[in-house]
Specification:
The complex is a heterodimer. By secondary structure, chain A is mainly β. Chain A is built from two helices and 20 strands. In chain B, the strands form eight sheets. Chain B has a 26-stranded mixed sheet, with no helix packed on it. Chain B has a 17-stranded mixed sheet, with no helix packed on it. Classes of the chains: A mainly beta, B mainly beta. Chains A and B meet through strand 18, strand 19, strand 20, helix 1 and helix 2 of A and strand 1, strand 2, strand 3, strand 4 and strand 20 of B.
């Protein structure tokens, strides 16, 4: 990878490249790095020694992949007052057009803001964010009459804000956010005629967690930690060719399921209870509280 | 690890990520903001080949998949659900997938449900305890708001405990608000439940002296599944739907609701066969609506040391048992009814006041039951060590006083009292009965009432039959002494005492209008006849027994020829009715032979065919006696009346100037001076009138002149 504008060609360890107590200290200040930074035992760009300090004027904003990566062999230490953001996932390829349009490619996941496979310790007073998932590719168009268009590709999941696979500790007074999911791809154009609908849009990508501590750890937070937003699904593709007999999705009315069915499904999933009665009370809690009287 | 999960089918958007995911456990201290991501939005459209889209689920604020500890003084919120044709549900504030601890001093809330033109999504739970754990809340935990729609979505649960765990609440735990109804239909969603426990758990709301805690929701607390939950309430558990809603709902018999004094339920409590404990940890308590607002509890218990007052109307019905080991009283106008298979048990040391036991209900007192009422079909059992005071037993009800039990002041008004223990002061009114196999004292049998004094009950280990003492039998009342039974000191004020074979009466006082009938085989001893009638039937056992006249009355001897008793105090206007001595004027004769000691003699009455020889205690001469027909073929023997024209001394002549006392009183005291005056009763030989005050209204005391022994202790006449 190439260093981005304003970046140093190689890291400066604690401005002097010195080691303290046998550890390679490093600092990123007054610069923005646009590629993945690797946390290591030595300073060798793009590897920065741990402990790594990013000052308020420093930033790691990768175009793709993880913002800061630490290998399994290292329990890294990062003190961030600047900005760290994982890269956006790659968009999926569009499906091929044909008699039956093919499925669009899935978007890839966004990169984590920080991914320390060997765990570690992070103090954050700045911003750490996962990247947005890549958008799914559009489905391919179907040429053959009565054939629906190709299904859109699934959006990629967002990247985690911080992923400490083997655990660690985090003290946050800034903002840590998971990446948003990528949008699903549009369905391909249908062939018209019966069943010649536009293709099914792809799944929206899942938002990702602000902090993942897969093997335990501790978090002390006085700032903000946010999960990533799930992606909005793609809307239906365009209707079939003019003059066709396609009953495109857009022509169908809104169809609501019965209230009871919706309630029962949701309730049983979240609490395992029998479905409560159908909604319908005119009283809202805030207005109806007996305690407020 | 991807916590947001995948999307659904067709149009489905993505789910959201958690704020923090500690899949390996750990600890979190938060005084900032942690928020789960929002679920993605989906299409509102429906397509035949793709179905409808489901909105993405909001991410959890914290997913502590591996357990651990969370201390929160900030804000933790689940993500908002996405909107779609089928809107998603909000994320939980915290998901504690393994055991762990949550201490909340801030705000924790579920995310709101997704929106939709038709039906809103469900709000997320504030906290989900998937595998138990411990939660202490000092601030606020709330479910997420339902999604807005024409039919607003249901609010989320405040807390969901899926596998037990403990919740201690000192702040507020609330179900989420229902989603706002929109458009012309505009129905708001239901409010979420405060706490849902699907597999047991322990919830403590407030503490002694701290009543500000609140658990509130459409349903305050709901527990279901097969494991029992225990909910202890010092403060308030409420439904947002007020009395029409449900504060607490249980679904199995293992669950327990403990209400401490001072606590409050707003809405119904549904027991599901569980237990309601009324405890004393919070001081005295007041409860209302037992049986109406509070239903379905198989056991309702007032715990030892507790002091509860029931107000309004309360019932214990089929399948219910009320146990009082503490104090259970009624407020003014309050009512507690036990009926239709219901049971109230008053434990040793417990007190129940004012219970009404009716059709099919039972109250058993090992402790104290005061002022209750037992009506038709009801039963009060006073067990060993138990005390029932002031109960009223009406028609069809009964009070059973077991051996070792005590009943005081019972009014049997049409019902029945069975005494195997001790009863005192019972009043038996019309239609009522008292059956004594133990001890009954100081009672009253009123008109239409019956007291049955019976012997040892077959099949019991008791060695002594029933004993009634100092019972007053009023006009129309009856005391029946059966074989093995005894009555001592009965006072017949117009009522009847019947001593049947094997029964015994001693010390009975038979006042005017009263009747004692001593049947064949019955025993009477030391009977005093004071205006009433004593009938000694053939075969009655009275040998050596003394019948004393004290102010009129009749001793009827059905078989005087074999009468072996003694008669004392015979004087005007007393009568002996000798039923077996036919009266024939000029044929039937009387004579008195004084004994050598001059303190008694034998009165002989003979018709020629039959002769009675009766022992009279006192000094008499033959000329004192008169014989007349009793109108029933027998002979009536009387003391002669005062001679016409004899001088008399009035009370004014003998009354002291002031209340007089101090003189020695001889036997035969007649102390009821006003009554004596009212009935113009005369003092007789061997008797003394004690004047304690002049008679009210000025009556006169008639003292026959001519005999110093008629008033030996009265002061000299003025």
């Amino acid at each position: 990878m190439m260093a981005g504008p304003g970046e140093h060609a190689r890291p400066r360890a604690d401005r002097a490249g010195q080691k303290i107590g046998g550890r390679a200290l490093s600092t990123i200040s007054h610069k923005t790095i646009t590629q993945t930074v690797t946390l290591g035992a030595v300073n060798s760009y793009p590897t920065y020694g741990s402990p790594l300090t990013i000052t308020s004027t420093g930033a790691i904003l990768t175009g793709a992949g993880v913002g800061i990566y630490g290998g399994i062999a290292l329990a890294g230490t990062i003190d961030n007052a600047g900005r760290i953001k994982g890269g956006i996932g790659r968009a999926g390829n569009a499906g091929s057009a044909g008699n039956i349009g093919s499925v669009g490619g899935a978007g890839s996941g966004g990169g984590a803001g920080i991914d320390l496979a060997g765990g570690g310790s992070i103090v954050n007073g700045g911003t750490i964010a996962g990247g947005t998932g890549g958008a799914g590719g559009a489905g391919g168009a179907s040429i053959e009459r009565h054939q629906p268009g190709g299904t859109g590709g699934t959006g990629g999941a967002g990247g985690a804000g911080i992923d400490l696979t083997t655990g660690g500790s985090i003290v946050n007074s800034g903002t840590i956010a998971g990446g948003n999911g990528g949008n699903g791809g549009n369905g391909g154009t249908g062939g018209g005629g019966n069943f010649g609908y536009p293709g099914t849009p792809g799944f929206g990508g899942a938002g990702r967690t602000g902090i993942i501590l897969s093997d335990g750890g501790s978090v002390i937070n006085s700032g903000a930690i946010l999960g990533g937003q799930g992606a909005t699904a793609a809307w239906p593709g365009p209707p079939g060719p003019p003059g066709s007999s396609s009953r495109a999705a857009a022509t169908l009315p809104i169809l609501a399921r019965s209230p009871a069915a919706v309630v029962a499904t949701a309730t049983s999933t979240s609490a395992g209870s029998a479905a409560p009665g159908a909604p319908g009370s005119a009283c809202r809690a805030a207005a109806a509280s007996p305690i407020a009287a | 690890m991807i916590t947001g999960g995948s999307g659904g089918s067709g149009y489905d958007p993505g789910s959201a990520g958690a704020g923090i995911d500690l899949s390996g456990g750990g600890s979190i201290a938060n005084n900032g903001v942690i928020t789960g991501g929002g679920g993605g939005d989906g299409s509102y459209l429906y397509r035949a080949n793709a179905g409808g889209a489901t909105g993405g689920t909001g991410g959890a604020g914290i997913n502590l998949a591996g357990g651990g500890n969370i201390a929160n003084t900030g804000t933790i919120t689940g993500g908002k659900a996405g909107s779609a044709l089928y809107p998603g549900y909000g994320g939980a504030g915290i998901v504690l997938a393994m055991r762990g601890n949550v201490a909340n001093h801030g705000a924790i809330a579920g995310g709101s449900g997704g929106s939709n033109p038709a039906v809103g999504g469900v709000g997320g739970a504030g906290i989900v305890l998937t595998a138990g754990g411990s939660l202490v809340n000092d601030a606020t935990i709330a479910g997420g708001e339902g999604g807005a729609a024409a039919e607003g979505g249901p609010g989320g649960y405040g807390i969901v405990a899926k596998a037990g765990g403990s919740v201690v609440n000192r702040g507020t735990i609330a179900g989420g608000a229902g989603g706002i109804g929109q458009g012309t239909r505009s129905h708001n969603g239901t409010v979420g439940t405060g706490i849902v426990a699907s597999a047991g758990g322990v919830v403590t709301n407030g503490s002694a002296g701290d009543g500000k805690a609140l658990i509130i929701g459409g349903v305050g607390i709901e527990a279901f599944g097969t494991r029992g939950a225990t909910v202890t309430n010092f403060a308030t558990i409420a439904s947002t739907y007020w009395a029409g809603g449900t504060a607490v709902s249980f679904a199995n018999g293992k669950s327990v609701l403990v209400l401490e004094g001072g606590s409050r339920l707003v809405g119904k409590a549904k027991g599901g066969g569980g237990t309601l404990d009324l405890a004393g940890g919070g001081g005295a308590g007041t409860l209302s609506g037992l049986g109406s607002q509070i239903t379905g509890f198989a056991q309702v218990a007032v715990l030892a040391g507790a002091n509860w007052t029931l107000s309004g109307s309360n019932t214990i019905g089929s399948g219910g048992t009320l146990t009082a080991a503490g104090r259970l009283a009624l407020a003014s106008g309050g009512l507690i009814e036990v009926f239709s298979g219901g049971v109230e048990i008053v434990r040793s040391g417990g007190v129940a006041i004012g219970t009404v036991v009716r059709n099919g209900g039972t109250e058993t007192a090992f402790g104290t039951a005061n002022g209750g009422m037992v009506t038709s079909g009801g039963r009060q059992i006073v067990s060993a060590g138990g005390v029932a005071s002031g109960a009223t037993v009406t028609l069809g009800g009964d009070q059973t006083v077991s051996s070792g039990g005590t009943a005081r002041g019972t009014v049997v008004s049409g019902g029945a009292q069975y005494v195997r223990g001790t009863a005192s002061g019972t009043t038996v009114e019309s239609g009522g009965s008292e059956t004594v196999r133990g001890v009954a004292s100081g009672g009253t049998v009123a008109s239409g009432g019956t007291e049955n004094v019976r012997g040892v009950e077959s099949g019991t280990v008791a060695s002594v039959g029933g004993v009634a003492s100092s019972v007053t039998v009023k006009a129309g009342g009856r005391e029946i002494v059966f074989s093995g039974g005894r009555t001592v000191g009965a006072i017949l004020n117009g009522g009847t005492e019947y001593v049947s074979s094997g029964g015994a009466a001693s010390g009975t006082m038979v006042h005017s209008g009263g009747t004692e009938i001593v049947d064949s085989g019955g025993t009477a001893n030391a009977t005093t006849i004071s205006g009433g009638l004593v009938e000694v039937m053939r075969g009655a056992y009275v040998s050596g027994r003394v019948f004393t006249f004290a102010g009129g009355g009749t001793l009827q001897l059905d078989q005087s020829v074999s009468f072996k008793g003694e008669i004392a105090g015979f004087a005007v206007p007393d009568q002996l009715d000798l039923r077996d001595i036919e009266f024939v004027a000029g044929t039937t004769t009387v004579s008195f032979t004084e004994a050598s000691g001059k303190t008694s003699g034998t009165l002989t009455v003979t018709s020629g065919a039959h002769t009675a020889s009766l022992i009279l205690l006192g000094s008499y001469v033959t000329s004192q006696f008169t014989l007349t027909s009793d109108g029933k073929s027998g002979t009536l023997v009387a003391d002669p009346p005062l001679a016409a024209g004899a001088s008399q001394t009035t009370f004014e002549d003998i009354a002291p100037a002031s209340p007089y006392a101090g003189a020695a009183i001889s036997t035969g005291l007649l102390s009821d001076l006003p009554r004596a005056i009212a009935t113009n009763e005369q003092a007789r030989a061997g008797q003394t009138l004690l004047a304690t005050a002049p008679p009210a209204g000025g009556g006169s005391l008639m003292v026959p002149a001519g005999g110093a022994d008629h008033h030996p202790l009265l002061p000299a006449a003025r």
